[in-house]
């Protein structure tokens, strides 16, 4: 192949005049060099290239400018159908060339085109001397000498038998494909079912006439190609905007194309809706669509119009429903006993199918009836058979085919007689197992309810009627109300706090927004009031009536324990205060006594003694003020401060004086937080909490001071009685020091209680608690031993 390319390139260089051969030695000469003597005509060209042309593997013919054959190699003769022993004098002697299979052109025209345009190249069919057509590629190029004169034409022939064969096979395949397509199109367009194919984007790639006319309302079968169902649905709706029901097909149906692709298997769907204002119901079959290489290209489907069949089916179902309703009448089935023929027909069967009992015996009739009910049933049937009575009405237990016992209500009457005896008995029956079970369950539920109601350790009251009078009361409630029979009386509830001016009604208790118990005195007319915890909620009493369930819990033991606990707490606090006061006053009075004695005895100058005594008196006064501040802070002028500004001014100073090795961080909000608090009280709160944190933290520890705004919600307010709903400023001082256990944390706010023995006075947190409580706030302490302590001071904002 490489040699052939070189020869081709060399020939084209010769043909275009870029180089030529010396006549004798065949040495290539570059353009501009000349041979000695001799004209530069076609013979000159042939003399230098004859061997190359004869041995060239492709067909090659050299023509004179008049079209006469000057040289033709063997490959060209074979391609043109000539005997290699003969010569072809004129190429034009061939009858004709057929170019591209549709236009016949003579060789003269081809050669003229090559001379005028510089080249000619085309695939063609050549008629051989034997009349056969030979597919060839003909390439004609003028031969020029170094002076640029055309001295002949070079024709290169290439056989195209394989290409021609493939083209003919392709044409035959295309013809057969068109025939098959026409056949398929004709078949699809003549069937009444809708047939289509879609690509993966749900665009139609095939649609038959039924689909175009009945569903899409397309002008022909070509219009749907490349469009989706949504396109035609939108067009139909827009064509009749006044009628929203003109086209609704597929609006409430599932995406069957997507389901088919997800399942990757043939699927069946029901699709329905209005088309052209009329209801259409389709039975649709869809399957994944694969090409010949097994690649998924979309979905293929067909749909059959079963609107009439569905209407008939619905009518049949409705007819069956009406018949079933008529037969059942609420789980009722019919039965008929043909006594002479000995058959019993039950329709529908209580066991789920038709029963046809031929030649019934006593075993067949009474064998499936419960042994306890069979004698009574048999006796009633015998009275009918003997003509003693005409009707039968009884409830009994019957065993079904699963071996389960069912309650059956059966009612019948003799309708035909012969010789005074019935020949046909007919009637109805109903499975009343659910009703009987419901009756038994209701009885059991009533027993359980009564046991729970009466056995409850809490008092339970049910109030009903327009006046919400007591309609139910258990034994505990009767004991708490001091009335043996409170039914029909009105319950009264007086809050123990004594703040209410009148008793609370049950409706007010039930309408409360939160469900925390309320401590009240409960009583009724003629009864003794009792302290109780009460909860109330609305309940349904049935038949559209509402009532209130009231739960009473005896509070007398709790109040007794609470009183004892409060007394013990008071005594412990009093003991702590007395001990602390004694200790502090002794520390003050002892120096006073010493200086007084030294002043009287003259051991020290009187002025020095009086100075020391005065200092001791001031310390005693400060102790007294602190003690008073824990319970009743002094009344000062009302003042509001911005806690954000206060913290920003004081915390940096505290950070600078913090002991070495203790780190301090602090944060404040962006906006001011204004509270009702004096600057002096705020300073005392901050300094006391800071002092406690510094004492608790070891070297290397950390103290964090933060100020933030929080919104107290109803649940938080309910959990902490010192808080109410609304915005608060929260000052938090957290440390990672030694922490406190639960006992120490509970006693921390008590005056003179301190874990910093012996250096602590025990008044720091007491003062903080007293000041903050005085300003409607609270102090929350969180602490874990060996982890740290966090003290959160809640102060209500002024703009709440």
What does it look like?
With 800 residues, the protein is an alpha+beta fold. The protein has 6 domains: 2-159, PAS domain (Beta-Lactamase), CATH 3.30.450; 191-307, Beta-Lactamase; 326-437, Beta-Lactamase (2-Layer Sandwich); 462-554, no CATH class; 560-629; 634-796, Histidine kinase-like ATPase, C-terminal domain (Heat Shock Protein 90, 2-Layer Sandwich). Helices cover 38% and strands 29% of the residues. The protein is built from 21 helices and 33 strands. The strands form 7 sheets. It has a 7-stranded antiparallel β-sheet, with helices on both faces. Strand 1 and strand 2 (28-30) form a beta hairpin. Helix 15 packs antiparallel against helix 16 (606-631), helix 17 packs parallel to helix 18 and helix 18 (679-696) packs antiparallel against helix 21 (764-774). It is flat and about 165 Å long. The two termini are 99 Å apart. Residues 580-799 form the Histidine kinase domain. Pfam families: HATPase_c, PAS_3, PAS_4, PAS_8. InterPro entries: HATPase_C_sf, HATPase_dom, His_kinase_dom, HisK_dim/P_dom, HisK_dim/P_sf, PAC, PAS, PAS-assoc_C. Residues 263-318, 390-444 form the PAC domain. Keywords: ATP-binding, Kinase, Nucleotide-binding, Phosphoprotein, Transferase, Two-component regulatory system.
> What is the H level of CATH, i.e. the homologous superfamily of the largest domain?
Histidine kinase-like ATPase, C-terminal domain
Query: Strand order within the widest sheet?
Result: 4-3-9-8-7-5-6
- CATH second-level architecture of the largest domain: 2-Layer Sandwich
Number of domains: 6
Main sheet overview: 7 strands, antiparallel
Distance between the termini: 99 Å
CATH class value of the largest domain: Alpha Beta
Structural class: alpha+beta
Shape assignment: flat
Uncertain segments are 1-7, 13-38, 95-102, 353-359
Strand runs, count:
33
What is the beta-strand fraction? Answer: 25-35%
Please report the number of helical segments: 21
In helices, the fraction of residues equals 25-40%
Radius of gyration: 58 Å
Mean pLDDT: 79
CATH topology-level name of the largest domain: Heat Shock Protein 90
């Amino acid at each position: 192949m490489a040699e052939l390319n070189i020869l081709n390139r060399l020939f084209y260089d010769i043909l275009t005049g870029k180089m030529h051969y010396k006549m004798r030695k065949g040495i290539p000469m570059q353009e501009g060099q000349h041979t000695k003597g001799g004209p530069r005509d076609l013979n000159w060209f042939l003399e230098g290239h004859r061997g190359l042309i004869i041995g060239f593997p492709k067909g090659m013919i050299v023509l004179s400018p008049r079209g006469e054959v000057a040289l033709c190699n063997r490959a060209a003769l074979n391609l043109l159908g000539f005997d290699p022993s003969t010569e072809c004098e004129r190429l034009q002697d061939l009858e004709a060339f057929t170019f591209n299979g549709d236009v016949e052109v003579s060789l003269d025209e081809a050669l003229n085109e090559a001379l005028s345009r510089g080249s000619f190249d085309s695939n063609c069919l050549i008629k051989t001397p034997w009349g056969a057509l030979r597919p060839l590629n003909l390439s004609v190029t003028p031969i020029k000498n170094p002076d640029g004169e055309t001295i002949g034409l070079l024709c290169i022939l290439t056989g195209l038998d394989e290409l021609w064969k493939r083209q003919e096979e392709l044409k035959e395949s295309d013809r057969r494909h068109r025939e098959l397509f026409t056949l398929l199109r004709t078949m699809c367009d003549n069937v009444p079912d809708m047939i289509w194919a879609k690509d993966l984007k749900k665009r139609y790639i095939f649609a038959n006439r039924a689909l175009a006319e009945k569903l899409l309302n397309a002008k022909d079968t070509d219009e749907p190609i490349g469009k989706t169902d949504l396109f035609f649905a939108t067009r139909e709706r827009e064509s009749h905007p006044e009628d929203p029901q003109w086209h609704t097909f597929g609006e409430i149906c599932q995406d069957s194309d997507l389901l088919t692709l997800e399942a990757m298997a043939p699927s069946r769907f029901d699709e329905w809706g209005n088309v052209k204002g009329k209801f259409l119901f389709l039975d649709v079959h869809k399957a994944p669509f694969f090409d010949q290489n097994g690649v998924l290209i979309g979905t293929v489907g067909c749909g059959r119009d079963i609107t009439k069949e569905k209407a008939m089916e619905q009518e049949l179902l409705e007819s069956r429903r009406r018949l079933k309703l008529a037969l059942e009448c609420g789980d009722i089935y019919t039965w008929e006993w043909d006594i002479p023929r000995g058959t019993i027909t039950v329709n529908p069967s209580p066991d789920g199918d038709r029963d046809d009992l031929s030649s019934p015996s006593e075993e067949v009739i009474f064998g499936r009836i419960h042994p306890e009910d069979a004698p009574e049933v048999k006796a009633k049937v015998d009275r009918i058979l003997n003509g003693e009575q005409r009707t039968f009405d009884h409830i009994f237990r019957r065993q079904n085919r699963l071996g389960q016992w069912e309650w059956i209500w059966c009612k019948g009457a003799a309708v035909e007689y012969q010789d005074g005896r019935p020949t046909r008995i007919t009637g109805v029956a109903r499975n009343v197992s659910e009703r009987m079970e419901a009756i038994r369950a209701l009885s059991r539920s009533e027993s359980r309810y009564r046991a729970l109601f009466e056995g409850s350790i809490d008092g339970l009251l049910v109030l009903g009627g327009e006046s919400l009078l007591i309609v139910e009361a258990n034994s505990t409630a009767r004991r708490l109300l001091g009335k043996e029979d409170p039914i029909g009386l009105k319950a009264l509830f007086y809050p123990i706090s004594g703040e209410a001016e009148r008793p609370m009604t049950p409706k007010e208790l039930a309408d409360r927004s939160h469900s925390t118990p309320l401590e009240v005195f409960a009583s009724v007319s003629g009864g003794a009031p009792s302290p109780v915890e009460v909860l109330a909620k609305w309940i349904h009493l049935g038949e559209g009536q509402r009532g209130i369930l009231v739960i009473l819990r005896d509070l007398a033991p709790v109040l007794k324990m609470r009183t004892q606990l409060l007394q013990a707490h008071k005594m412990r606090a009093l003991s702590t205060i007395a001990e602390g006061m004694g200790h502090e006053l002794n520390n003050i009075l002892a120096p006073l006594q010493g200086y007084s004695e030294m002043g009287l005895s003259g051991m020290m100058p009187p002025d020095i003694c009086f100075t020391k005594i005065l200092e001791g008196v001031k310390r005693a006064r400060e102790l007294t003020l602190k003690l008073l501040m824990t319970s009743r802070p002094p009344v000062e002028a009302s003042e509001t401060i911005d806690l954000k500004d206060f913290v920003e001014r004081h915390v940096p100073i505290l950070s600078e004086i913090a002991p070495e090795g203790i780190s301090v961080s602090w944060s404040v909000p962006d906006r001011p937080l204004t509270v009702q608090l004096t600057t002096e009280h705020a300073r005392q709160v901050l300094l006391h909490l800071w002092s406690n944190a510094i004492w608790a933290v070891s070297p290397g520890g950390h103290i964090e001071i933060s100020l933030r705004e929080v919104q107290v919600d109803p649940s938080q307010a309910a959990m902490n009685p010192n808080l109410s709903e609304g915005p608060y400023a929260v000052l938090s001082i957290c440390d990672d020091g030694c922490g406190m256990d639960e006992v120490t944390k509970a006693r921390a706010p008590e005056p003179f209680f301190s874990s910093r023995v012996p250096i602590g006075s025990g008044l720091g947190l007491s003062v903080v608690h007293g000041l903050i409580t005085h300003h409607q706030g609270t102090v929350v302490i969180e602490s874990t031993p060996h982890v740290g302590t966090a003290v959160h001071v809640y102060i209500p904002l002024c703009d709440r």
